[in-house]
Design brief:
The complex is a heterodimer of chains A (256) and B (307).
Chain A: H1 2-12, H2 16-38, H3 48-51, H4 55-62, H5 69-85, H6 88-95, H7 99-133, H8 143-170, H9 174-195, H10 204-212, E1 216-217, E2 220-221, H11 228-252
Antiparallel strand pairs in A: 1-2
Helix pairs in contact in A: 1-7, 2-5, 2-7, 5-6, 5-7, 5-8, 5-9, 7-8, 7-11, 8-9, 8-10, 8-11, 10-11
Chain B: E1 8-17, E2 23-33, E3 38-42, H1 49-56, E4 64-69, H2 80-83, E5 84-87, H3 99-109, H4 114-123, H5 139-151, E6 157-161, H6 169-184, E7 188-193, H7 196-199, E8 205-210, E9 213-219, H8 220-225, E10 230-234, H9 238-246, E11 252-255, E12 261-264, H10 268-277, E13 284-287, H11 292-300
Parallel strand pairs in B: 3-7, 3-8, 5-6, 6-7
Antiparallel strand pairs in B: 1-2, 1-4, 8-9, 10-12, 10-13, 11-12
Helix pairs in contact in B: 3-4, 4-5
The chains are: A mainly alpha (256), B alpha/beta (307).
Chain lengths: 256, 307
């Protein structure tokens, strides 16, 4: 419990978490506004009025806070690599020389922080979607669908934060870890999805979309997504596998 | 004196970094650090001091041998921060955290109340700077914060890596008195340094290593008594005095450029008695301070022999 309290205090004694929460909220707001007013269409001509009549599209506007998951990934990476960058990992392991509980505490703390990010961003996207859609003719925002999105965002963002911690303990160089993670999210994952269609559902991004009911991207329904439950389970699988690899390497590592 | 004294022990410690023929940082090193004394852990930069300390603290796994704190490996201690306080590097702080914030994180990890944070800040003279971000701290202030971190758990053992780095002369004097008082309370204090003169006035015992191997281990007095002390004498009748001294067994007399006699093999008292017996007037009679730094350099230079 002490280790867990220390992890929360680490996060709360720097400003980083507030900055990233601010950025994530702004990013979510931008996503909602784009989907309501501009309707990103990937170059095709689409009748935006028509899209707003599709229930799944309207729900995806609410679920567009999924895109803020990258900020949660970043906070996990910075939180973990920061320990190595500033050598605070020494103080951490001096206080808790048994390292496994430290790794568990870190994962739990960041999962909670990720979940809070998820809830805040969901509230932003839901309320902003409700407000901006009010003046337009649109399919109704279905409460049960939104509830599923809320469940998905809590689980998904918690998992993304854990993935960030895991990536950060495998790649201890902060800049390298951030670049690799961002290249994966913004380049490799979209390219794989575009050119190898079936991978979409099995990548972390596709699993998160499935769990959150985010079924429309670029004004087009994403094909072949897993069910919400399967998506959530796949995310948990990613966290367990990556977290286990990260823990095993961290337990043995010499801290010099 | 404290009730439970805790000693440190390094037993045949060897650490090789990397695979196969990696870098041999520490080689079959053994020594003990006793409670109630300040022990200097000395050696040039890169001689394996920090690696040894990190092994003692469970941060680095030995290739062979073991390190014990009060008879147990550090990783098996029940309440590590209340047993050992360590200040390893001045750089172990998040620059965006305040001094108080840093200490409160460490305090939380060991269940230490926040009131103790205020106490240690005052103890090291950082009470005014507690709300400031560590990123703006001078090296000396970081050293003090490191020390404050080490003291949080009121530990029986203090392990300090180069604590005098970056301290001004006033700070060094303060640190010396502080460490002496901690040892006087019965605590075990281990202080590393690459300069003997820096800790000469602080330590009781020394452990000197070179290239990861032990070259000298024992009390500081034992180290200095191994040397030939020189006595410096000035006299208006120095020629007669020199003659009678050189008649004594196993003495040597030389004259320096100012005309003073430099004598080895006799103590100042013996020389004074001799001069008195011979009716030789003396203007000056004193024993040269041991040049421990020269001994240290000789022990640790790459050509220097073992001890």
């Amino acid at each position: 419990m002490n280790a867990l309290r220390a992890e929360f205090r680490k996060v709360l004694t720097t400003r980083l978490v507030l900055w990233l929460l601010g950025f994530s909220v702004a990013f979510t707001a931008l996503n909602v506004l784009l989907m309501v007013y501009l309707v990103p269409t990937n170059g095709r001509i689409v009748d935006s009025e028509q899209l707003l009549q599709i229930p799944a599209y309207v729900n995806s506007i609410v679920a567009s806070c999924a895109n803020a998951s990258v900020f949660v990934l970043i906070i996990g990476i910075i939180g973990m690599t920061g320990e190595y960058r500033h050598m605070t990992i020494t103080a951490t392991f001096l206080a808790s020389p048994r390292r496994a509980p430290v790794m568990v505490a870190k994962a739990v703390a960041y999962a909670v922080i990720g979940a809070i990010f998820g809830i805040v961003n969901f509230i932003i996207s839901l309320s902003l979607a409700t407000i901006t859609l009010a003046g337009k003719e649109h399919a109704a925002i279905v409460a049960s669908e939104s509830l599923q999105t809320l469940g998905g965002v809590i689980l998904g963002f918690a998992i993304y934060a854990i993935l960030g911690v895991a990536v950060g303990s495998l790649i201890r160089n902060q800049v390298a870890a951030l670049i690799i993670a961002l290249v994966f999210v913004f380049l490799i994952q979209p390219l794989l999805s575009t050119f190898v269609d079936w991978t979409t559902a099995w990548l972390p991004g596709g699993a998160l979309d499935a769990a959150m009911n985010m079924t429309y991207r670029q004004g087009e329904a994403t094909s072949g997504l897993l069910s919400a439950w399967a998506g959530g389970l796949l995310l948990i699988g990613y966290a367990i596998v990556l977290g286990a690899i990260a823990s095993i390497t961290t337990l043995k590592r010499d801290i010099t | 004196m404290r009730g439970n004294s805790v000693g440190l022990e390094v037993r045949s410690l060897t650490k090789v970094f990397g695979r196969g023929d990696g870098v041999r940082a520490v080689s079959d090193l053994s020594f003990r650090v006793e409670p109630g004394r300040v022990t200097g852990f000395l050696g040039p930069n890169g001689s394996g001091k920090t690696t040894t300390l990190r092994c003692l603290l469970g941060l680095v796994s030995p290739t062979s041998g073991e390190t014990l704190v009060g008879g147990h490996p550090y990783r098996e201690l029940h309440d590590p921060l209340h047993t050992v306080g360590a200040a390893l590097e001045a750089s172990g702080f998040h620059p965006g955290r305040t001094a108080r914030g840093h200490l409160s994180v460490v305090a939380a990890s060991a269940g230490i109340p926040r009131t103790r944070v205020t106490e240690v800040l005052e103890l090291v003279g950082l009470a005014e700077a507690g709300h400031r971000k560590v990123g703006g701290f001078s090296l000396g202030m970081r050293q003090r914060l490191s020390l404050a971190t080490a003291l949080l758990g009121d530990p029986a053992v203090l392990i300090l890596d180069e604590p005098a780095n970056g301290l001004d002369p006033e700070g060094i004097a303060w640190l010396r008195n502080f460490l002496r008082s901690l040892a006087a309370e019965g605590r075990t204090v281990l202080v590393s340094s690459h300069v003997l003169s820096e800790v000469q006035l602080t330590v009781d015992d020394v452990v000197i290593i070179r290239k990861g191997e032990l070259v000298s281990y024992g009390s500081l007095d034992a180290l200095s008594s191994g040397m030939n002390a020189r006595v410096i004498v000035r006299s208006p009748d120095s020629i007669r005095l020199a003659e009678s001294i050189s008649q004594q067994a196993s003495t040597s007399v030389t004259t320096d450029t100012t005309g003073a006699l430099l004598i080895t093999g006799m103590t100042a008292a013996e020389i004074g008695a001799l001069a008195f017996a011979q009716n030789v007037m003396l203007h000056e009679l004193h024993t040269e301070e041991h040049d421990l730094e020269a001994v240290f350099l000789e022990l640790t230079s790459s050509e220097g022999g073992g001890a």
